Amino acid sequence: MKNLFTAAAAAISIAASAMSVQAQEWTPPGPIKLMIAFAAGGGADTQARLIATELENRLGWEFIPEQVTGKGGVNLLVEMQDEPNDGTVIGMIVTESLGYNLYTADIGLTPEDFTPIVTTAGTQMGVVAGAATGWTSFDDMVAAAKGGQDIRFGVMSQRLGEIAYLLGKEQGIDLNIISVQGGRAVLNGVTAGDMDVGFMAGIQAPGVEAGDLVNLASAMAQPLTQTPDAPTLPDLGVDFDAAAVFLFAGPGGMPEDARNAIAAAITEVTSDPETEVGALIARAFGGPMNIQGAELDALVMRDFADSEALIEAASE
Amino acid sequence: MQGQSRSNLYLGLLCVAFALLLIFIWIPLDTKTGIVEKARGKFVIGDALAPTVAAGFILLGGLVVSVFERKVADQPTISRTQVKFVASLTALVIVGLAIMRFVGPAAVEIANLFRAEPMEYRLLRATPGWKHIGFFLGGAIMVAGLVSVVERKLTRRAVLTGIITAVVLIAVFDLPFEDLLLPPNGDV
Amino acid sequence: MDILGYIWLGVQAVFLGPEAFSILGMSISITVMMVLSGFLFGIVVGATPGLAGPFAMAISLPILISVFGYSPDALLPVLGFLIGIMKGATIGGAVPAILFNTPGTPDAFMTTLDGFPMAQKGQAKKALRVAHFSSASGDTFSDIVLFVCAPFLAIIVESYLDLPEKTGLLILSLSFIAAVIGGSAGKGLISIGLGLLAVYVGTGEDFYPRLSMGADGLSRGFPITTAVLGVLIIGAVFKELEEAWRETGQNRPAKVPTQSGDQKLHWPDIKRLFPFIARSAFIGTAIGALPGVGSTLAATLGYSVGRARHQKTKAADAPSFGDGTPEGIAATEAANSAVSGANLIPVLSLGIPGNAAAVFLILAAESIGGFNPGPAVFRFSPDVVNPELVIAFGLFTCMTIANLFNWTIGGVFMRSMGFMINIPKTLLLPAVLLLTLTAIYVQETRLEAIWFALGFGVLGYVMRVLTISPLPFVIAFILGRSLEETARQAYSATGNDPFFLFNNPIALIFILMSVAVIIFAGRKPKGTAP
Question: Quick check: helix, strand or coil at residue A133?
Fold first, then answer.
């Protein structure tokens, strides 16, 4: 996952030049069922629906969006695996769904049972505290913990819980890790004072801007765009990346022409800042990130395999 | 006290038995993490706790009903005719849904007999006409059937109500909205 | 941004939202139009025997969501429409109660006691006017209490209650609801337990879907619409169909007798009715603010208190309660209408729904996203605009608009609805059933959802036959997830203290109160047993 962003930069250029031609060669044989693993009305759901609308307008494809939420995208994967793989069924998840979540769910499925199509954007994942804590840096939090204060750390997935645990362990402090459903719940918890600090995937930006929230650290391998001076996870001794990347995938064994055509079409609309979805991605998710093909396959498999190392590290 | 229904006693005992079944058999066998589990060196609340609390409410309710409320006046009864009536309503709904589910694909198969190039219902599920066959027939038969059962006779009014209801629902849900799928078109 | 700033933003969100059309250069926003159409639709539905507000809210929700989409902009038009229905159905229910002795909604049952005798005496129009005036007064009073109390209560909850206390509060609410809805605490507890059990199927923290018995169909749990619509709507349709089936061949209701005399409501009438309205509005508001205590109890209490007062003060030759007196209608209608506004106090300040209408408002907010009713809504953040708070004040604005419609055109429209009695239940209810199943399908798009709803419908029917109130089931289903999550969070937050509910004074008080409420309610029937 560490090399994700460098990979992304390379991939964007390839995608933009080579693939857009192929979109012409394949058209879906019928309406496309678009499964969405995120709660209706949130940023991720809006992104998926805007992509569908834009593709309907540009290419005349017909999309039928459907919410399949729960279990970090695993519910969607289970539902999708038996669907036809001719390109008429795709789903929007995060890389974590095919990685840690599928691995931990232990239901006999691997990423090879699915066809990853293309990523759309990453998230600006940060370790964010409420201004009421009085902390201005990550060290302040560590000092408070060492001074005997109980620290409540909000996370929105099991994998993030493991990373939070490692983060505490590396600093020699004990965190009370509270898991909640969805990123907004972490934001609400931190603002209401039910939690001191938590992972937030970009939702913190307006609050940080206004001074209600503080980005203590980047929860990725590279700095946050909003607070570039905050330390990164490797700086803090944690060799994993908490970033989530939005991903379109289909059932296993999807034909190459369908896969490439859908990937090219999605890349085209998400990387165009003139479109509504392109603007949303630029504003809320730190810009487009379109990885596809063999590179995406490798990325997804590595994520799946890394999960074992993460679980092992966190259970020590 | 003669003729007084004792349904509270039976209901209470049934609930107690169900709750015990839940707590000692179903929940332990059908959850993965137990009441508490160990994660990252600490005990955390497992997935079995909340259902056990639910079962606790049922158990407590069953006890209260069968012990404290055993002899209250005017206890309700379920009559055989009520069971039969609701069973027939449910059966009718199931028949209607089955028609809804299978008539469309069957129609495509029949049409395929006369076509060189076979069609697939799944790919026609957004095509006007095809996509309405199942809902229209299944819905109309369901409503007409229910009206007839309740009025104890099959009238032209019942059939008309079924047809009108199905047509109105298609007009309300399907015509104005591209994204909405009438049954069974999300499953095919 | 201060409080006034937020209120102003909320008002603007309603009036300056997307425009429906404009008259003489004045633009009329979609939200205002939605409140109006919901209100009129609610009156029609309320005036139709066999249909009630929750039906209308349930079936319009998927259509509204398809029209307005899943975006925060959809919240006010959709919730505005639902609020309109809620208010319209309240006054609509009095129409068949007064004209035909058939309450249009369950709340209106007490209205028949004096309304129908008045109609028999040729005073139907006057009875309807009294009902409308009292209902609108009670409703308006209740809304004002809501506007004032909800924000303060929410702020108190948010600043004094930490995770363990919030867990305790949820347990107390569930116990209270079990104890007060319906006549039996035991049956209330069973209803709560079943609702919790249903919501815990397939959910949970672990990736294995618990209690799913390995079935794929259950692995995503029961969608909230299937449980709520199944138990509340389909169960009620089955029950009503059964009653219609028993009555087949029986007579239609009597014709309205010829009307005579003065049908207008004059100032001295209002002055005479006012004490009854005020008392009942107060009773209804107080009862409505408690989660789970329904408008039926409010109407009964308002009526009894009114009757006691009336016996002492009435002129010797004036009719008593039950013989067709305007005071009787006023006492009932003011009380049952005052419940609807106050019922939103626990919804907005605690996230706890108290009646079926509140359940559907929460369902709407949850389906659309971007607004989670609860204490976090009332966070007056000074620098960043809290969008949920704007929506909350937008809702208050919608309620005020609905009240204005109620005062101005509600009465006229309501009095023209007498003909709805002619729609036979035997035709209407099967159509409603298909409509409900279709509405569930378009939201969930899988047939499993319809099977679930049908199963919950049968459950709802059996519960009704056994006089187990289905409302605690639904409320437990809605609160179950947050009960489990809050408990987990409280446990983690307190450094894995297994006794977090007892080591904290406020949480402990809540737990002791829940036990007390169950014991108190559970012992009551023993005393009345023969």
Answer: helix
Chain C residues closer than 8 Å to A106 by CB: 207
Residue ranges per structural domain of chain B: 7-68, 80-174
Residues C502 and C507: their CA atoms lie apart, in Å, by 7
Topology of domain A4-123+244-315 in CATH is D-Maltodextrin-Binding Protein; domain 2 (3.40.190)
Which residues, in sequence order, are CB contacts of B68 under 8 Å at separation 6+?
C186, C522, C523, C525, C526
Q: Which residues in chain A have Cβ-Cβ distances shorter than 8 Å to C207? A: 71-72, 74, 101, 104-107
pTM for the whole structure? 0.90
- Mutate: best of A176, A200, A203, A208, partner C, most C CBs <10 A: A176
Residues β-bridged to residue A218: A126
HSE-up of residue C446 (Cα within 13 Å, Cβ side): 18
SS3 category, A253: coil
With CA atoms as reference, report the closest residue to B182 among B137, B119, B120, B118: B137
| C229-249 tens-digit pLDDT | 999 999 999 999 999 898 875
Residues in chain A with CB shorter than 8 Å from the CB of B187 are none
How far is the C-alpha of C464 from the C-alpha of C318, rounded, in Å? 40
Prediction ipTM score: 0.95
Per-domain residue ranges of chain A? 4-123+244-315, 126-236
Say yes or no for a CB contact (<8 Å) between B150 and C426. yes
CATH of region A126-236 = 3.40.190.10
Q: How far apart are CA C194 and CA B58, in angstroms?
A: 7
Q: What pLDDT does A18 receive? A: 46
Cα distances (Å, whole numbers) of residue C501 to A175, A195, C496 = 21, 18, 12
Which has the closest alpha carbon to C40: C398, C412, C341, C433? C412
Of residues C72, C219, C375, nearest to A78 (C-beta): C219
Contact pairs from chain A to chain B, CB under 8 Å:
30
- B60/C189 CB distance under 8 A: yes
Shortest distance, CA C172 to any CA of chain B (angstroms): 13
Q: Chain A within 8 Å of C203 (Cβ-Cβ)?
A: yes
* Secondary structure E strands in chain A: 32-36, 63-67, 89-94, 114-122, 125-130, 151-155, 175-179, 197-201, 213-218, 245-251
pLDDT digits (tens, 9 = 90+) for C12-59: 899 988 877 777 777 789 999 999 999 999 999 999 887 888 889 988
Query: Is the omega angle on the peptide bond into residue B184 within 30 degrees of 0, that is, cis?
Result: yes
First to last CA, chain C: 62
The minimum CA-CA distance between A92 and chain C, rounded to whole Å, is 16
Of A116, A121, A114, A171, the C-alpha closest to A146 is: A171
Q: What is the per-residue pLDDT across C315-332, written as a single tens digit (0 to 9) for each?
A: 878 888 988 899 999 999
> Cα separation of A27 and A30, whole Å?
9
CA distance C226 to C105: 23
Integer Cα distance of C223 and A66 in angstroms? 13
**Is B43 within 8 Å of C496 when comparing Cβ atoms?**
yes
Judged against a pLDDT cut of 80, whether residue C526 lies above it is answered with no
**H helix or E strand, kind and range, residue C392:** helix C387-405
Exposed (0-12), middle (13-18) or buried (19+): which is B31, by Cβ within 10 Å?
Answer: buried
Backbone φ and ψ for C457, nearest 5 degrees, come out as -65, -45
In a 3-state reduction of DSSP, which class is residue B39?
strand
Q: Which residue of C has its CA nearest to B101?
A: C447
Please report which confidence band the pLDDT of residue C252 belongs to, taking 50, 70 and 90 as the band edges.
Answer: low
Residue in B closest to A65 by C-alpha? B179
What integer pLDDT is reported at residue C249 of this predicted model? 56
Distance CA C101, CA C108 (A): 10
- Say whether A30 and B123 touch across the interface (CB within 8 A): yes
